[in-house]
Amino acid sequence: MVQQETKPNDALKRATDAINEEDLEHMLLGIEDLPDLLNEFEIAREGILDNATMADHGFPGHTTESIAARGRITGYVREFTPQELETALDGDLITAGTVVHLFEGNDDPSEWIKEIFLKEFLGNVGDLNDNGHELVHAEELELEGFYGKAASVFAVHDVPNGVLGSTIIDFSIGRLLGVAFVVSLGEVQNRELAKDLALRLERKVVRVALGSNY
């Protein structure tokens, strides 16, 4: 159908057992890791993404405790925006970013992809969030080429100042869940760019997990 699942290399899964919270930020893409299409982008936000923040900014119904019960320990996020963001027009890219989440067990990230990422996007179309964002469309996209379980969603949000199109990819490597996302003004899908970012992130996660220099 629309997602690929192959069992990751056992050595790589064992390598993620030694990962700690301090390693996460080094796994994320930096300015130097971005594709040429994003060469005018700069870091707009980065930092620790704890379970309380996830509960506050995720789909309704989550609490710090319910997220921890899924095995999630913490995460780190880094987002990029164009230097001339205020002049962006319909169809333009306005945000790109990567996230790495750390879980307790090797099966937790795959379960998160299935039970949280996919179900919540596909099951909440038509819902209006507290911040005034309405999810008006969500579809799962075909995806292949990743080590472990991976899935992609294209979502359209109606926001107070217009419409945003987000292309998101989640993938698992042992205890880690990697996320890459691209957001545009308008109902624009950026499947290839999101996949490029996700594969770059996956390679960097593997390098750090296996003990290579950052």
Describe the protein in words.
It is a single chain. This protein is α+β, with helices and mostly antiparallel strands and 214 residues long. Helices cover 28% and strands 33% of the residues. The protein has helices at residues 10-16, 24-27, 51-57, 64-69, 108-123, 191-209; strands at residues 41-48, 72-82, 93-103, 134-141, 150-159, 162-173, 176-185. It has a 7-stranded antiparallel beta sheet. Strand 5 (150-159) and strand 6 form a beta hairpin.
| Rg, Å, rounded | 16 Å
Largest sheet: 7 strands, antiparallel
Strand content: 25-35%
3D shape: globular
Number of E strands: 7
Number of helices: 6
- Broad structural category: alpha+beta
Lateral arrangement of strands in the main beta sheet: 1-2-3-7-6-5-4
Regions with little confidence, pLDDT below 50 for 5+ residues = 3-8
Mean pLDDT level: 90
Distance between the termini: 36 Å
Q: Order of helices and strands, N to C?
A: HHEHHEEHEEEEH
Q: Percent range for helical residues?
A: 25-40%
